[in-house]
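thought: fold this chain, then report.
action: predict
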Amino acid sequence: LFCNLPFHHALGDTLDALIGRSLHEILYLQRPNGTMAPLELCHLQQGMENGETVRNREAFLARRDGSMLAVNYTTAPIANNGASVGLILIFHNIASPTRAKEPLAPSTQEAAPLASQKLQNSIERHRIIAEFSRRALSDANMDTLLKYTADIVSKTLKAPFCAIMEQSPQAPQDGETGGRQDDSALVILAATGFSPDITDRAFSLADDPQAEYALRTCEAIMTPDINREARFAPSALQREYSLRSGLSVIIHGTEKPFGVLAIHTTEERAYEDDEIQFLQALANIVGIVLDRKHAEQARSESQKKYAAMVREAAVGIGQVSPQGIWQDANRKLGEILGYTLDELKHMDCQQVTYKEDLETDHAMFLKLVAGEFDSYSVEKRYVRKDGSPIWAQLTASSVRDEQGNILYVIGMINDITQRKKTQQELEASRKALEDSNRELDQFTTIASHDLKAPLRKIEIFSSYLATQAGDKLNEEEQDYLRRIQACVQSMHTLVDDLLFLARATKEPTNFSRVDLTNLVNEALATLSTQIEEQKARITLTPLCQAEGDATQLTQLFQNLIQNALKFQPQGGCPEVSIFSQQPEPDYCEISVQDNGIGFPEDQAERLFRPFERLPAGQAYTGTGIGLSICKRIVERHHGSIRVCSQPGAGSTFTIRLPFRQSGAD
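observation:
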């Protein structure tokens, strides 16, 4: 289930690769003939079930590269409420796996008491490690456990001074240990032998060279006598407490070292391998504990942040039981519904649902609880405490356990009352606009008929008068009659232009693939009489193909060419050039260029307004609607129109059209 950094480094494998593997694949025994066989795990299983500790067994670990690593291992069961639920194994790397089996030579029998004492010390240390492992997994108070660690290390190794130091990114403040600032610091979590106020004291790494050296090399560092140490100078604590010997081992973490476990004495002392292994074993367990502590702190912080986020969220968030009872809610939900959180917790969520939405809402909730879907989103109405209805966007999601049983439902409720009100107002405005446009269309049709009827009568009677009594009228009276007929014709043109302008805005466009050259030729054919009369020279360069409404585009070109023919200086010969270019891959530009009277370019925008006529064009006949029609047609084709001109230098109208239209055949 878990292994620390030294273990998976020793096996030459990654932590992810080891998690989930059977110990049967890793732990081996050596047969008498020298071959290796997987260790039978029955005695480990039996020890775990009986709550017994297995001590000081020799075996081999199979490394990733195929080699075998000789180890000495101790096991201790993990208990939960009196029942064994797992096993802790602690491995020591041993230089010679057969040394323990060799009998004592006669020449060394005088050393037997010493060897026996060492064996007893080793057994006792393994017992302490096993006991410490159990306590580390069950003790919830981190400070108490770390202080116990420092005390037991000091007592077992007979070292008066012991300190557990965690590496922290926070540097000590000025005035602490010489006032140095460094990139990281060591914080003393627990200690024995030092003054009581040393706990939580921070040291710069530069002030503890031995710890810094250990962290940099990731090795256990032994100093029999700091006064003869060449690798580093004495630390601040060593100077303050006149410490001479020291042993520092790394407290390993999952990703990087947490810190250092160190012991010191005031006398010169060399530390044996068994003592180093014992201290490292405890340091490894401390690393597991600190890993758990940091994970719990991170989880706690995450939970606090999440709770704060939910509590202060700008949308209402509530928790509902599978029976539909409110279990919890944030502040915003209380504001939306007008209830306090205590009031909501005693209510069914259907109690705040609008009557007409009850059936649909309840059906969706039951389907969610039944597991037909994991979540749903719907617009519904709620009833506030004061009885007023509100609109809300509800998103409900089910939360289930590992077996798929529903635990509760989370609902996110966003007040959309104002949005609904705005939508209703917009819908009412849209309907009113449609009604207005429909009435305007009817008015346009009726008005054009009513306008044309008297015009036709005036035209008929004026023509009849000219025919029957024209020779009886004097010159002035005949001039009046001609003016009447000209006005009638102007009114006909105005009414027709107004109708075409209305149709260009309202009638649907029939988009299809069209050849713009053909459409220009059709417009020229319509204007052929005027072209011949004015002896105009027309230059047409082949144009591109595009998608558009053929009728409207023909009218567009006809209006532009007609303007070019009309607005000419007295006695001038019109010259009109029509050509195209492609400035972008998806667009074409068609230009109509003339040699007419031109106009100031700052007045260009006025040309496209209905009934607008520039001063230079007042002497020419027309309704002032032609260019407005052109602009409407171009806009309905998702394009644009612009003009460049100077007085006396002619004008160039440029139309920008897309090659493809949405909805074209």
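thought: worth noting. The CA atoms of residues 129 and 282 lie 7 Å apart.
final: tokens above.
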